[in-house]
Each structure stands twice: as structure tokens, then as C-alpha cells.
Protein 1
Amino acid sequence: MATMDDQAEVLVVGAGPVGLCAAYNLTRHGVRVRLVDRATGPATTSRALATHARSLEVYDQMGVLEALLAAGRKVEHFSVHQGGRCLVRFDTDYSRLPTRFPFTLMIDQAITERVLREALAGLGVPIEWEVALESFTQDDTGVRTTLRHADGRTETVETGWLVGCDGGKSTVRKLLGLPLIGDSTETWLIADAVVDTDLPGDSIHLLHAGTGSVMLVPFPEPGKFRLLDTVDTDHADLADEVARRFAGKISRVLGKPVEVSTPSWVSVFTIQQRMVPSMRVDRVLVAGDAAHVHSPASGQGMNTGIQDAYNLAWKLAMVVRGTAGPGLLDSYGAERVPIGKALLGSTRKATLLVALQNRAMALGLPVGTAVLRGLAPLKRFVERRIMGAMSGLALTYRDTPLRVDGRPVGRVPVGTRISVVDATGAAAPGWQALLAELREPRWRLLVVPREGDATPAAIARAHPDLAVRTVTVDGATPAPGGPLPLADPDGRLRAALGLAPGDWQLVRPDGYLAATGSGLTGAEFDQLLSSLLCRPAGVDRPSDETALENA
Ligand SMILES: Cc1cc2nc3c(=O)[nH]c(=O)nc-3n(C[C@H](O)[C@H](O)[C@H](O)COP(=O)(O)OP(=O)(O)OC[C@H]3O[C@@H](n4cnc5c(N)ncnc54)[C@H](O)[C@@H]3O)c2cc1C
């Protein structure tokens, strides 16, 4: 029997990392969410290990970072071994992409999911296990979803929106008729085991073993590694045989005996490189593996999915609240589909590099790495390229429809994340204040006020949902209804952002710059919000089509 669900505004399907992230962030933005998963409980098998810098910045904004950092291991190197020696050790170079997290955090996906589940529970949102989405229909008014419970009972839920975070075999994606375009490439064997070796635990190790290679990715637990074999995939059901084979290969490449314990998990998987051409059909959206599947070679799948969910949550929340029209949601796919496409290219290259099955490439390895060792600038260039592609920091929304090209001011271009600061710089009081501001789920306008300029106060009064932050020297107490001061006593925040008196930056809830300029009037600001498909207080929402044309 159909029941009208007058509680949930959004149904999120799938309580993997992406569904958890979507549900948590929607809830933080004030949306009533229902989260269902057909599994009997949380996944126990390990998959994602690598969490990259941009995801860590996002976790900081979400308020879940500390628990994750405490449970993970920092990895800062990538070492290539052949013929009994380490040919090259790449370091990480974030000099062009400053971040407070210049490393990859190795943390078991099961722990990441646990931290996200706890955060969600803290907001009072339960996860409904053993509840599977079977089908749905949608029209202008909402989505009617049929759910099947563990006892066989079916339930029809009515919500305004449906978000499919139901993984690579997504039922939501299939029911939408969205094709997953791409191909399957290599088949690899994977095993998690303790390796008796003196290889440093702060590096990933690529061992070239004649044909193909073996990769060792450290877990947080001392001595435990994820082992990947890019060639021999048979006998995956015989864990001891898999351990023996890995021990033999690793010993041969390192030139000394190495023991491998019986793996706690062995799996064979075929690498899929596929994605959907669009992430939204009217009131139904897809995120994470439901929208794109990548090679695990550079650890991108979960990282990308988390950022999909983070991108989507604030937009969907605005649409649900009526402070933006549904057209805002088109920017979700417009921003995330190109990122998925770019990743298919970079993860394909990473897969080829890890597999090293090309004989010429393998033969050239000692020479190529010797050149890199001898030419420090070239090595640093490669290190920067690797980190740029893997860390997620170089990804921008510069081509988004959600940008307004006013007068460019400051050092951070529109479409780029604003938290461009390393750990040392972040100690400045101004940065501390801005980073704290970024943890709040809201839009904010940063203004360096001019002497006697009343505009920031007028905008703050006219837009109570918007945090207008005046970047000031003294951080004076705000007047009632006036802008919130963001104290920058030593001026290091203004200097790092390159802001002069009168300059302003409009920062999206996800921390990316939407617009910048200098000197702003209240009317210009209203026009700006309209162009960004957001409805300023007291002004009718523009039709989505008109607003998109204007954007
Ligand atoms: C070996 C391996 C190593 C990897 N390493 C990394 C790495 O280092 N870094 C990285 O970023 N990524 C990595 N990945 C990828 C990462 O694991 C995935 O990208 C991630 O799990 C995707 O999360 P998700 O929430 O989109 O989907 P999933 O984790 O697949 O979760 C989907 C959820 O939806 C539920 N569900 C499915 N259908 C329904 C339905 N009809 N109704 C209700 N619920 C449903 C499922 O039960 C499941 O809980 C790796 C993957 C593999 C296989």
C-alpha cells in the first residue's frame, strides 16, 4: 500500500561512503533525509585505502577530519624497485598546490565509513539496512520509490528528490537509462597481508617483476600492506598459495627473502573505466560509483564520489528550501562530469604505469629513473604532475555555469578552492578564522571593507542566510545585524589572498570561489545572486532558463 512520507524530503539510496556523505551534508544544510541500504549492515571488506588532500580538506569542512587523521597513516613517497635496488623515490611536491595536508592518508574504507556513520548518527539520522530500492517513477511533483524490506514487504515512499549512491551496479542509474560508457581493461589480483620487510611504511612501493609488477600499499597497521599483482590472478581462492606467490615475487625484486602472512582478504577484479554522460534526470541524481568507476591504480573512486556528494548536497538543499530553482542542479553535472572524464584519462595512465607490461617501458625503467634522479628540476616537475593529478587539488570548476566574471581580484581565481594555504601559513589567526568559517555549511561573502563603507552591513541585513564576513584587522564586535568580523590582525590572510580594501570574494558552501570583485553595491549583489541561480532575500526567483542564460 502506498504511504505518503511527509517526513523525508530527499531519499538517499546506498549507505556506502558517498551515500553517507550525501545524507550527512544534506542534513547539515537542514534537509530531512531518509537513507536506505539493501545490505544487512556496514561493509566489512576493505576497498579504498588512499584518501587524498582535497578529500581531507572536504572532511575538515564537514567536521569529521580529526577522527580520520587519528586512524590513518600518512604516505608521502612513491618508490620504484627493480633488480634488488630502489631505482627512484618520488617525494610529494605541493609547492604549487598549497594544502594543509601534503600527503595521502592511508585509511581503510571500512573506518572512513564508520566515522561518517557516527557523524550522521550524531545528527539523528538512522541508516535503514536491508531496505532495497526496487523501482521508482517521477513527475513534476516528486519521486515515488518502491522499497523492499527484509521481510518481503514493499513500501512506496514519496519524496521530492532521489539521490542514487548505490554503487557500480546502481539500480537507480539503470532505471534512469543512463549508460555507463567506457571499457574494462586489465584484471588484477589484490590481497591484504602482513609482509615481513624493512620497506618504509611512508611510501607506496612499485616492484617491477619482469613482466608486470607488484605494488605494496601500506595500511595504518605496522607491517600490513595491500598487495597488487598485475599479471598472476589465478588461485585467488587459495590464500596460502597467493601469499607464497607474493613472497616469491617480492623477494626476487628486492633481492632478499621476504615472508608474507596468509592474507586477510583476497580478490580478483577487472578494472572498469566507465562513466555516465549526465548525472541528473529531472528529480533523480546519481553520485559516486553509480556515476563513474575507475581503476584503483591511483585511488580515486571514493575520493571522487565524496566530492560529488559534497558538490551536490548544498545545491540540492537550496532547491529543496526554495532558495534556488532546480536549474541550479544542472551545474552539478556540468561541474562533475568533466572531472570524471579527466579522471578516466589520468587513472588509465596510472594503470599502465603500475602494470608496466610494455616491455620497452620496462627495459627503459632503469635509464629513465636514473635521468630523473640526476635532474632534480625534472624530478620535481614529475612529482608536481603526479600530485596535481592525484590530490584533487588541481581540479577546479572554472568552466562552471555558476560563475560570474566580475573584476578579477586577488590570487585565487573564480572556480578554485579558497583554502590555498599550507600548514605553516594556516597558523595565522586570519586563516584560522577563515578555516573555521569554511566549516559552516553556508555561503559567505568576504569583504575587505573600505573606511566608512556601509555596503557590507546593508548586504548582511538584506541576506540573513548569508554570512557576510568583513576581513578586518581588529575583529571588532559586530553591530546587531551587521557583518561578522573575521579577524586578521597580522594581515597574513589578506596578503595570501591578495586582497586590497574594497575587494570581495563570494565563496560557495563547498569552499570554491563563485565570484570576485572590488566595490559592491547592494543592487549589484542581488544581480550577482540571481546570476548564480540563487534567490536573494525578498526578490522573486528568476526562472531557471532565464537565469541559466544570464549566468
Ligand atoms: C580493490 C579496490 C581498491 C580501491 N581503492 C581505492 C582507493 O584507494 N581510493 C579510492 O578513492 N577509491 C578506491 N576504490 C574505489 C572505492 O572503493 C569506491 O569508489 C567506493 O566504494 C564508492 O562508494 P559508493 O558509496 O559510491 O558505492 P559503494 O561503496 O559501492 O556503496 C553502494 C551502497 O549501495 C547499496 N545498494 C546497492 N544497490 C542498492 C539498492 N538497490 N537499494 C539499496 N541499497 C543499494 C550497497 O549495499 C552499498 O552499501 C577501490 C576499489 C576497489 C575495488
Protein 2
Amino acid sequence: MLVQYPDTWVDSKDLQKDVAEKIFYLSRQLEAYEFTEEGLLLTLCGSIVDEVQLIADVQDLMTKLAAAFKHCSHEILESGSHVASNTVGPDEVLDESRQIYMSSPGVPIFTGDFLKVKTAIDNYIRDYALEFGCEEHLYPTTVPSKSLINSGYLGSFPQHALLVGTVHHDLESLRAIAKEPEAYHDVSKIDDLVSNHAQVLAPTVCGHCFELLAGQKIEKTQALYTATAHCHRHEGNNHSGFERLQTYTMREIIFFGSAAFVKESQEKILKDVKAMFEQWGLQWRIAVASDPFFATGNEQKKAFQTLFRLKYELQVYLPQKDQWIASASFNHHQDSLVKPYKVTGQDNELNSGCFGIGLERITYAMFSQMGVDLENWDSTVREQLVL
Ligand SMILES: [Zn+2]
């Protein structure tokens, strides 16, 4: 099925990426897409219930994203001095040695050197965070669904939510599954027996922190916290290697204080992490970023984020794929989260911000840029990470 580009379409890889991130949310029958000169070529499975409607939906998505794209800068602020020259990709070795094993699409199990490096990076950033004045927290796997409704996350990213269900606590449902569990190999049959989605798999690390501080007054003029936790994001058919995992690990630093303090912390951490990547010999760059909001009306929010530089992204290069992936973000939330969570400070203008580093993505980039054999890595990075 070929969908014509709208008149406002811009021929840009970044805009194509924006569309690719959301296209699978439109229909479960979408199997693949390709941007051709004539239009967007879609491959579908099964017979389409309403083809005219799907074409209209795809065109509507492209029109909205093209409009948002024009209002956002895609500015690269700075690039590091190193150029990654490793030509052999790590995928084959990581896969064959089972250092990375996907138990479900986008849900990895880690072993061996990959795990060793991932843990070492987390320890390194943890030490940095503690020195920066953070108090450490340990967070669970889920957050209350209500929390995501209040914070606006569910409204902005409904497609990402992974709600946790439980089997109905009634004898009929429990007996049905206990009596003949094999009958539920077709897992879709379980849907009828499950409900009570009061919890959701946490999509961010800082969400837990806001949950902890909800309704509280921060007595100090500034407060900093750090934690590592699993984050979860439903991506539909979108899982593609380390670009889009369903379950991944983030180390975050979360900071509260005046707007100026939050900005200062955001800039300071950015500066320090840049220096870290430079020392490790990584090829990196900094971009002004905006979140890929999906629901209607959020295009404005995206343009606003870009305009005020509320979000920076540190990207790393994958030489074999000729591709940049975001590995860390530096966010100024203003009062958009303290307000719904009713967190207050000394005066009335409490703001918050966070820094998050995706441990799988940075580890993967290191293997891509430096190879799979840790012995061949530069001695500086090996010493710093104690490898
Ligand atoms: Zn965060």
C-alpha cells in the first residue's frame, strides 16, 4: 500500500525517524514500511478492515510530524574529538557467546564481558553521583498506574505503557487456569481471566523519586538523588536491537531546587559526562532534543522543549551501522512534575531536573567502537572502569 506524502513533507532522515517511531501504533496489521520517492510504502498482514481510514491516519501522522519538525531545531551543538574506526560489528560475537540473549523481543539477558562493562559503567557513574552530593535510593519494578495518570505520562505516551495484570481472584478463573494450564499456551486466552491493572512497569527512574516525594516539602534549598533501575517501554513492532529495547537499565541523577539550580546542575553534569566520554575515547555528539510525544496536541510541547533547551541528548556513534544513538539525556522539567506530584520547596518556585544514562546503549556503543575484546581497549578506559 502506497501512501502519498503530504504537501508539507520534508525530505529528512530525522523526520523519517519520527514517523518510524510511531507508525506501528496506528494498526496492528502493519508489518513493515519503506520511504520511497513516490511515497511511504507499507506492507500489511491479513486483510485490512478499513484501508481508506488507515491511509488517512498515516497521512495525518505525517502531516502532524512534519509540522512539529519545522518548529524544532535539530541542532548538533558539539562533537567530540575522537573518530571511531573499528570496522567489525560486535553483534555476532555477543549473540553467539550469549553475552546478550533476548528472552522476548527487546528483553535482554546479559552475561560475560558485556555485563562486566555495563556494571562497571554504572559503578563509575554512581561514584560520580555520590561525589556530586546525591543520596542513593533503591526502586522497585512497578509504579502505581495512578501515578502515571497524574504526571501526564500516560496521556503523552499511552502506546508505551506496560500494565501489570493479575488473574481474577474468583474461583472460576483460578480453577480454569489451575485445571488445564496447557490450554493457555495461546496466551491471548489468558486475557479473559486477567484484570486489576493498578500497577504499571516503571517507564523511568525518576518517576519512583516523585512517588516518594509526593505531597512532601523539601526542607533543604536543593536536593539530589541517584538510583539505577529497570525501565520498561512497550514498542510494538518497533524493537530493533539496542535502539529500542522493551526493558533496559538507566542510572539517573534527579535534582530539585530553584530554576537556576536545576539549569546549573543540568549544565554541570553535561560538562562532566562529556569529559568522561572524551577520556574513554568515544565518538560522541550533543544535540538539543525533544521527546517524541504521540498524542494529539503535543507537537507544541515538543517545539517548546526545543526552544528553551530543556533537553540535551548525548549521542554515540555506531560505526558499522553509520548511525547515532542517544545514550544519555539531561532534562529540565521546570515545574511540570513537582506540580502534579505536589512536591514543594522552601519558596514557591521549586523546579526539578534529571540526568539519565542508558547503560545498555552506552555499553553497546563501546563494544561497537572499541571491539569485543576488552584487552584491546585503551588503557585509560580500562583503568577508569577497573576492567
Ligand atoms: Zn528522569
